[in-house]
Design goal:
The structure is a homodimer of 306-residue chains.
Chain A (H helix, E strand, L loop, with lengths): L17 H10 L7 H21 L3 H17 L6 H8 L2 H12 L3 H7 L25 E2 L10 E10 L10 E5 L20 E5 L5 E7 L4 E2 L5 H8 L5 E2 L2 E7 L6 E7 L18 E2 L2 E2 L8 E4 L2 E3 L5
Parallel strand pairs in A: 1-5, 2-12, 2-13, 9-10
Antiparallel strand pairs in A: 2-5, 3-4, 3-8, 6-7, 8-9, 11-12
Chain lengths: 306, 306
Amino acid sequence: MVSNGTNGEKPHGQKLDASKFTESVVASMGEKTPERLREVITSLTRHLHAFILETNLNTKEFMAGLELLNWAGRMSDEKRNEGLLLSDILGLERQASEMDDLVDSVTSHQLSMDNVTTTSSAILGPFWRSDTPLREFGSTMTFDTPPDAEVAYIHGVVTDAVTGEPLKNALVDVWQCSTNGLYEQQDPNQREFNLRGKFTTNDQGQYALYGIRPVPYPVPSDGPAGKLLQLLDRHPFRPAHIHYMTSKEGYATLVTQIFDRKTKYLDNDSVFATKSDLVVDFVPLKGNPNATLDLECNIALSPLQS
Amino acid sequence: MVSNGTNGEKPHGQKLDASKFTESVVASMGEKTPERLREVITSLTRHLHAFILETNLNTKEFMAGLELLNWAGRMSDEKRNEGLLLSDILGLERQASEMDDLVDSVTSHQLSMDNVTTTSSAILGPFWRSDTPLREFGSTMTFDTPPDAEVAYIHGVVTDAVTGEPLKNALVDVWQCSTNGLYEQQDPNQREFNLRGKFTTNDQGQYALYGIRPVPYPVPSDGPAGKLLQLLDRHPFRPAHIHYMTSKEGYATLVTQIFDRKTKYLDNDSVFATKSDLVVDFVPLKGNPNATLDLECNIALSPLQS
């Protein structure tokens, strides 16, 4: 107890009732708080307080966790999002992306009705870039192709998931790492925008490009996410995949990844992005001097609810 | 659906059962995970997944929250811990500090037994420095005293909370901001270590120093914590307080703050640190040329459980 001459306080500190304290934090939000933000912060506050109570998390442990978060922020810039990676290894982005499917599109309604073939979403991951250039139909996005790479002709049709009609002028944004497991922004030996490109669909809803067969790679291990994986006795590898972001006015933008059926780690992706219907087959391609493999990858977008 | 010639997948993406997905993340921890870490990460994962499900948090909102966290990390360095401040305005450090009281000391046992007078804890906050110098008994820690400051003689006895015996050679680390609301590391016009000092208790368990009457101040508003307070329609002010960290071998280190009874914001501290038994009274002091106020502040430490 802190005491002084004129202080007539009780002899010991009051232990606040835990839920009462939590609710006092929630109640501190003012009248002008946007309703959605109030809803989110209320739930977050209650869950984080409950987490601390449930685990008897002490200040030393709390500070260690916080230092991990600050470290992630310090490592993050335009080219790297370590906070996102840290979230990904705990499955948070995957969980949020499921919510997109439920909230932003007709998927949830259609799924229960019939055999509508909406492409599943997968997490964005930390390596997407907003400034990737638009490339020509059927052109390549592999420029510094290493000797061990297998070039693939990657193509497909973008359709309306409800009507099945092809969608022209849809934007297909594709990115992948090289065979050393590094994206171009991580690797000084790759030119800028290597293995990434934006493509538009033609009048038949088709897109086409040249890329490479993807390889498994470890997520970066020099930051807090790598440290946490190590502490949790987990491997850092991702199964071989190619990232897609497909958009078209009037449709829910689809962020996804496709996975090579022959890759390792399909059942234990370090960032929990795999879904069984996103597994694809690279097949041998003959008579094309530019590629030895063919990959057909069709994408069905959900119309937005109006 | 992603489809190609040899892919015989189901016509639509499987929506994983939410709790099944959460448990698969928990199950990904390897055998070598330390048990305490497994316990903490399991609870954290479940609560964060539940938060996302409960609020239908979508990717856009998730990314906005993540950017706030990365921003906090980027702002943090040896002199500023914005991640801690962000946690503090949600009451997280307060919640964890309650756990310290329960876990690290005999408090919980003693409290239920008798009128043991253990001093309550309060949060550390982001302005403590590890390298504060040791100062002489009865010396001053206010060097750049502004004209509007009231100098106070601050003194008290550090005792064993169970026996009531005075503790000699306890370390009393004290820090406070100046009347402009800034700690020395935030203010180029204050000399280094102004208004902070470490003091040791004498053979009678006493410590003594000169400081100033504290003032309310707003937490920094130029970062994510300030932004969030604004969005939540909350004021950024803290009630006038002085920080204490008191330690002695064999006792639980006590981190606390004392609050001026006459200050504003005693009932709505922006970081939820106040406790009623930590409220103290500054009283007029006569006959001392160095100070106009007197503050007696006694501290009772809990013996560690053996």
